[in-house]
Amino acid sequence: MFNNSKLTAWLTSVSRVSSASLILEDAEGRVLIVKAHYKNYWTFPGGVIDRHETPLQGAVRETREEVGLTVDPATVSFGWVANRTSKQADTYQFVFRAALPADAEARIKLQSSEIEDYAFVTRDEIETQNRHYGKVLFQWVRDARGYVEQSFNSDI
């Protein structure tokens, strides 16, 4: 039987960093993507889930921080969770979906310390690979649901 200190040590040893992102899709089927200063690819708004925060709370918070859009969690649905493995780390990424309000583009305000640009793209544009896109965008193109496994040869 575990005592509290052994249980705490064990739980700490098996934890994984998790992130959450939010797919914001407009009425024309385009999604909002962002380019962070420190990444070489475009992805959905999102980031690491803070301690004592749920994946949904993390996705909503990160979206507000990165692009200045406040999303009502009641309007968000679950997309998938990705088990992500690489040489650097094993992580989970929780992906959620919400409709982008019609006036959202006028309200976008980028987090200058982290985000250098944003764009709206369609599935067809992602498939042409006219930019360097993160794997999560290709999962959206394939309409991923539930559980996805991803492996990376470089940074995630």
List the strand order in the largest sheet.
4-1-6-5-8
**Rg from C-alpha positions?**
16 Å
Main beta sheet strand tally, sense and closure: 5 strands, mixed
Shape: globular
Total beta strand runs? 8
Q: Class by helix and strand content?
A: alpha/beta
Euclidean distance between termini CA atoms: 37 Å
Would you summarize the structure shown here?
The chain is of the alpha/beta class. It is built from five helices and eight strands.
Structure, explained:
With 156 residues, this protein is α/β, with parallel strands linked by helices. It contains five helices and eight strands, in the order H-E-E-E-E-H-E-E-H-E-H-H-E. The chain has a five-stranded mixed sheet with strand order 4-1-6-5-8, with helices on both faces. Strands 3-2-7 form a three-stranded antiparallel sheet. Strand 2 (31-36) and strand 3 form a beta hairpin.
Give the helix/strand layout.
Elements: H1 4-14, E1 17-25, E2 31-36, E3 42-43, E4 46-48, H2 55-67, E5 77-85, E6 90-99, H3 104-107, E7 115-121, H4 123-128, H5 135-141, E8 146-151
Parallel strand pairs: 1-6, 5-8
Antiparallel strand pairs: 1-4, 2-3, 2-7, 5-6
Please tag this protein with its features:
single chain; 156 residues; alpha/beta; 5-stranded mixed sheet; 5 helices; 33% strand
